[in-house]
Amino acid sequence: MKSLNSMRISGFDVLPLFEGGKGISISNGESSGAWAAAGAVGTFSGVNADSYDSDGQPIPQQYFGRTRVERHEELIRYAIDGGVTQAKIAHEIAGGRGPIHINVLWEMAAAERVLVGILERAGKLVHGVTCGAGMPYKVAEIAAHFGVHYYPIVSSGRAFRALWKRAYHKFSELLGGVVYEDPWRAGGHNGLSNSEDPAHPEDPYPRVLELRERLREFGLDETPIIMAGGVWYLREWENWIDNPELGPIAFQFGTRPLLTEESPISDAWKQRLLTLNEGDVYLNNFSPTGMWSSAVENAFLRELKERHDHQIAFTREPIGDHDTAFLTGPRKQPLFVTAHDKSRAEQWIAAGHTEAMKTPDSTLIFVKHEIMRDIRTDQTECMGCLSTCNFSNWSQLEGHTTGKKTDPRSFCIQKTLQVIGHSDEVENQLMFAGHAAFRFKDDPFYSNGFVPTVHQLVDRLVTGD
Ligand SMILES: Cc1cc2nc3c(=O)[nH]c(=O)nc-3n(C[C@H](O)[C@H](O)[C@H](O)COP(=O)(O)O)c2cc1C
Ligand code: SF4
Fold it and tell me: Which atom in ligand 2 lies closest to the alpha carbon of residue 382?
């Protein structure tokens, strides 16, 4: 294994190894502080991060506002307080040995207000901002205002080009690096474009080379590219290291750090990681953001898949073979479906999926009564955590609605990520993970259930394992 040269990141000479930011509360002050203290780059999530009470217990993010807008304001306050809290913890643990980055998502509600709010109070403790999910044009200007570096997360050279041309060229000196997140392999939300086939993963090398060519076009030959998604043993990436064609390359890990002592996830989640098989993590398109995402197969995902499978198209008038009346709702309103779909729907109803719910795509899905009740409750209790939400039709823009129908095929991501991040419930919640997570099982580092500290993991990564 080639030795890893140190790299200048956000004003520090450190190993070219990054902790990937993980919300909600999955990479935090404790984990990021430990990464920085180990001479690498720590990243805490600034997405609805935790604050603590005087006993050190996370303060539950409860909402008292009567309207979505009032709850949205409460959420912003929680997010800013939480981000400041985590920055302080990270700073203390890091002891000045490495940089601390904050990760935000441009698709989260009020991303700009939250980021500015955190940096106003804790900007001196944070050295970089990483930001993906959407096109974060504004992040460069915000970072420049606070004198911190910024790291856009992109999945193609084309996306970076657009960011650079429109906004980043004005703030080039603080562009610390560009994260290439492999849209087929990374955990969490994935930046697959409409023209990319989720079933056909592409080789990251030519895509990263293409990104480097875009960077060179703009004179950014020495700007590090941080490769994220599917990176496990660095020895498998030797041809990427000190490769003049690719230029400076660092590596980001999201999944491996889940299984460290400092990782705040539950023991149940850690244990589950050790049992995963290839194929247990896959891309799904259920997220209320409308983005693809990668998570572990469990009862939560199976139930969402079932909603999609128990689905039929309808028309409001008889058209073509949609000539069979189907009565729905309390008023037994007739909709028109094919005769074949009617008999499928009757079978689902007989099996207990008695409730028909309309989707924005003129389809009906069939769910059990308790699922419908939960969907309705979650939509009603929405606190506007995203910029726009397909599930509840919340929008942070004026009017606070997307103007579309709510989509019962999706779910409240805020609720499920809060639960999995703060309890040992893993089967019925969304468990994000990268596609290489099955490797925990056979990696000898973790034999006999060994859970390393972050320092031990970093030392191990440096050896190529
Ligand atoms: C549980 C989990 C949550 C994640 N949450 C975020 C997030 O909030 N923001 C983000 O930019 N990336 C997020 N990611 C992506 C990671 O930061 C990282 O880029 C990715 O996991 C790298 O690929 P790997 O999973 O193969 O290591 C998440 C990943 C995981 C596994
Ligand atoms: S319904 Fe959507 S916007 Fe509302 S809190 Fe849940 S995920 Fe966030």
Answer: 4
> What domains appear along the chain, each with residue ranges and CATH number?
7-276+438-462 (3.20.20.70), 299-422 (no CATH)
Confidence check: pLDDT of 180 > 90 = yes
Percent of the chain with pLDDT over 90: 92
Ligand 1 centre and the CA of 21: distance in Å?
6
Q: What residue owns the CA closest to ligand 2's atom 4?
A: 382
Q: What are phi and psi of 177, to 5 degrees?
A: 175, 170
pLDDT above 70 coverage of the chain, percent? 100
The C-alpha atoms of residue 151 and residue 142 are separated, in whole angstroms, by 12
**pLDDT of the residue at 330:** 80
pLDDT of residue 332: 86
Ligand 2 lining (C-beta closer than 6 Å): 288, 382-386, 389, 391-392, 394, 412-415
Ligand 2 center–CA 415 separation, angstroms: 8
307-361 pLDDT, tens digit per residue, is 999 999 999 999 999 999 999 888 888 999 999 999 999 999 999 999 999 999 9
First to last CA, the chain: 9
- Quote the ligand 2 centre to 174 CA distance (angstroms): 33
Q: What atom in ligand 1 is closest to the CA of residue 19? A: 17
Give dist(CA 210, CA 178) in Å, integer.
13
Q: Which atom of ligand 2 is nearest to the CA of 68?
A: 4
Ligand 1 centre distance from Cα of residue 433 (Å): 7
Distance of alpha carbon 48 from alpha carbon 72, whole angstroms: 12
Q: At what angle do helices 139-146 and 111-122 cross, to 10 degrees?
A: 10
> Which of these, 252, 97, 278, lies nearest to 176 by C-alpha position?
252
Could you tell me if the CB of 356 is within 6 A of ligand 1?
A: no
133 CA distance to ligand 2 middle (Å): 16
The phi and psi torsions of 22 (rounded to 5 degrees) equal: -140, 120
Please state whether the peptide bond connecting residue 24 to the residue before it is cis, i.e. omega within 30 degrees of 0.
yes
